[in-house]
Design goal:
mainly alpha; 37 helices; 5 strands
């Protein structure tokens, strides 16, 4: 059915550009006020670097975004490189809202309904948040909106050969971005393409000319030409050159994301590790993320939005069935897509998952606009003024969420990643090799080096990528790579050993395998640690001076910034807490060795940490206690038995103080249990078992904690007449088996199945517990 004729209250042609301009400028003003002023979280550091240095970002490379971004960043120079690209990202988001508004106007002949739909989308929580720092999802939203708009124009003008002649090739050109930008666009591109073909072959007048189909095919190929950005950029060997594309095979590997494994959103190994550490509740079973998407709509858009979206779906079923079929096909593909969204159900991963809500939100905003138009029609029939009905609907959607979401998404004061990068490199020795792991460390340091100019002498080696041949090949151009690049021992023998062939300081936050432990240890110095031979002793006073000098370079104000408790930034602040707790513990050791009071050089960060409260203060004390425990157990410093007894007693006291603030603090629980097992004067088997029971309840799949718990429980069960010790141990064992069964479904890796088989035996039969 063709759209209704223009209503008297709609805007005249002379003012047809006023509403889109108001919507775009209004949203851009909002986004500019709340945008991140520097590099943002997640992949923003990597993308900003790629879009400023003609680099190739992680698979699938995002050639369209990279091409546009590099043209903009090289044309507009700024003191803060990330800001220009953040505003470009915001412009993509605002344009997407304008295009959604136009699609609603075209198909319903209601400009007001379109404006309301665009405003609702632009002020929704997830969409707004993704608009504020460089990411791939705002451009993806713009392309999805363009596909819907072109389909609506094709429907509205299908009796006009001129309309058919340009909308079909234009849609083909936009659809190519499913390959040149983000494959998730296929979730909407496929239903839109099916609707185009269905309508085209059933046109009541002349069929679509062959020339138009040919032009559409050529437009599709023209759009794919953007892919050439990747091999051309890779040819010049930029600093960021993911995939090292040099032939067709490496190009396809990049585009198909084969380095990420099974076609899921996240590596199954990472997911399994999170489920083991956090329990069954973290498992992304079935369609949990799909249902979460729907149940979060009121939180993101307000309660009125889902109602208008449902009404819009009903409206398309009554008035334009091709659009209804498109929406139904989209919903089916969306459900299928969410079966591959395997991020753990944990707050730290929420932002990763929510980013993929943006594209379906675009479709729902379009449907909501159709629903608004229908409600305005119904209101007019009930003799309500259209302006009144539209105003109430606008207030109940976009305007109310503008105020509700502002404080929840505002990023203008978020300097976390840039500050973290500066703090991370503070005090690193010249020509260091930093064995990184995790996007926070790699991306923050990459941005600091390439775009801010900090510490370019430090070589970043990403441990997570050392299993990939192309990455090892690239790394050989910067550092001397050992014969076994996946072995931490090989890296340290190559660079940090007494007879290393290429002596360079080797730094890490953690090493992913334990092969280094017999020969080397990690000596903490701020956020990072330096690897030194195990037989090399360090004077505690010299160590404390070096450590304090590093922490003094930090900006204390950045440590105190408040982030939402469930935000990514709040979870990553633990690295500051860790470093400060370790320094306080080191000062405790220095004081223990001194014959009298010791005067330490003031460190502003420690003064700020002294005012932290609740869980953050507990974390500092917990890390401080655990540092003292490591000093006793791992020979970080040479101590006599009397010194060890004093340090261990202080560690126990700190652990008790920690647990008085936060009874579930894992560091304090671990320190107490380890000290009871290590120090004869602190031994108390019953108390140790109780503490280990609390640890394994928090970390049900942590084998490093489960092994000593099960051994202790088996050794004590003979003295327990009630049998309660064995009952609790069996309950922990059965829970572990349930979690391993979940993990075996999440990851086809044979090692997971072998672990399940191994732990499914009775406890007495498990070899490692005998």
């Amino acid at each position: 059915m063709a759209p209704a004729p223009r209503r008297p209250l709609e805007m005249s042609p002379r003012t047809q550009f006023v509403a889109p301009a108001v919507l775009f400028l209004g949203l851009m003003s909002i986004y500019a006020a709340t945008a991140c002023r520097t590099v943002g979280p997640g992949d923003s550091g990597e993308l900003t670097t790629a879009l400023s240095t003609w680099g190739v970002a992680h698979a699938p490379g995002f050639p369209l975004l990279s091409l546009i971004g590099n043209l903009v960043s090289h044309a507009v120079r700024a003191s803060e490189p990330a800001l220009i690209l953040n505003l470009l990202n915001a412009a993509f988001a605002a344009l997407a809202c304008v295009v959604v508004a136009d699609a609603v106007r075209v198909i319903t002949a209601s400009r007001a309904a379109g404006f309301i739909a665009g405003l609702a989308l632009g002020t929704s929580r997830v969409f707004w948040l993704q608009a504020l720092a460089l990411e791939v999802f705002s451009l993806n939203a713009l392309m999805a909106a363009l596909l819907i708009d072109l389909l609506c124009r094709f429907l509205a003008g299908r009796s006009d050969p001129r309309s058919v002649a340009w909308t079909l090739p234009a849609a083909a050109l936009v659809a190519s971005t499913a390959v040149t930008h983000h494959l998730t666009l296929g979730v909407i591109a496929l239903p839109v393409a099916a609707a185009f073909v269905f309508i085209a072959v059933r046109l009541p007048a002349d069929p679509v000319p062959r020339r138009t189909w040919l032009e559409a095919a050529l437009a599709l190929l023209a759009g794919l030409a953007v892919l050439l950005y990747v091999p051309v950029a890779a040819h010049f060997h930029p600093t960021l050159n993911w995939g090292d594309v040099h032939d067709g095979a490496s190009f396809m590997r990049l585009l198909m994301r084969r380095d990420f494994g099974s076609g899921t959103l996240m590596s199954p190994g990472i997911v399994v590790n999170q489920v083991l550490m956090n329990g069954e509740g973290a498992a992304p079973n079935g369609l949990r993320h799909f249902w979460s998407f729907w149940t979060n709509l009121p939180r993101d858009f307000g309660w009125l939005f889902p109602i208008t979206a449902a009404l819009g779906c009903a409206w398309t079923a009554r008035h334009t069935r091709p659009l209804f079929a498109m929406a139904a096909g989209f919903a089916a593909l969306l459900a299928l897509f969410f079966t591959r969204v395997n991020t753990p159900f944990l707050p730290v991963f929420d932002r990763v998952t929510e980013a993929f809500f943006v594209l379906p939100h675009v479709v729902l905003a379009f449907l909501a606009g159709c629903g608004v138009a229908w409600l305005m029609d119904l209101g007019e029939r009930a003799r309500l003024h259209r302006a009144l009905t539209g105003g109430l609907l606008a207030l109940g959607t976009g305007f109310v969420m503008l105020f509700a979401n502002w404080s929840r998404v505002d990023e203008h004061d978020n300097r976390f990643v840039r500050d973290f990068g500066a703090h991370l490199v503070a005090g690193m020795p010249p020509r260091s090799i930093f064995l990184s792991t995790g996007e926070l460390f790699s991306n923050s340091l990459l941005y600091s080096q390439q775009l801010v100019g900090y510490r370019r002498d430090v070589s970043i080696v990403d441990q997570d990528l050392l299993t990939l041949d192309w990455y090892v090949h690239q790394t050989r151009g910067r550092v001397s790579v050992p014969g076994d690049p996946g072995s931490s021992l090989a890296w340290l023998d190559q660079h940090a050993g007494h007879s290393a062939p290429d002596p360079r300081p080797v730094l890490a936050v953690q090493l992913l395998d334990g092969s280094y432990a017999p020969s080397y240890r990690l000596q903490p110095l701020g956020i990072w640690s330096i690897a030194i031979p195990r037989d090399q002793q360090t004077d505690p006073r010299d160590w404390e001076r070096e450590y304090s000098g590093i922490i003094r370079q930090w900006n204390p104000a950045s440590l105190d910034r408040q982030y939402a408790p469930d935000s990514w930034e709040a979870s990553e602040q633990i690295f500051y807490t860790y470093a400060i707790g370790q320094l306080e513990g080191l000062r405790d050791v220095v004081q223990a060795f001194a014959s009298g009071p010791v005067v330490f050089t003031p460190v502003p960060a420690l003064d700020h940490a002294a005012h932290w409260t609740r869980s953050r203060r507990a974390d500092v004390l917990g890390f401080r206690s655990d540092f003292l425990r490591i000093c006793v157990s791992d020979s970080l410093v040479r101590v006599t038995n009397g010194d060890a007894r004093q340090i261990a007693a202080q560690a126990m006291s700190l652990a008790d103080s920690t647990l008085a603030i936060d009874a579930g603090n894992i560091q304090a629980l671990h320190a107490k249990a380890a000290l009871m097992a290590l120090r004869p004067e602190l031994a108390d088997s019953a108390a140790e078992l109780s503490i280990r029971q609390r640890i394994v309840e928090r970390r049900p799949g942590d084998f490093g904690e489960l092994m000593p718990y099960f051994r202790l429980a088996l050794s004590l069960q003979a003295r327990d007449a009630s049998g309660s010790i064995r009952q609790r141990a069996d309950a922990v064992h059965q829970r572990l088996i349930r979690i391993l069964r979940i993990c075996a479904k999440l990851d086809p890796e044979p090692q997971v199945q072998r672990s399940l088989t191994y732990w499914s035996q009775p406890l007495e039969m498990i070899p490692s517990l005998r």
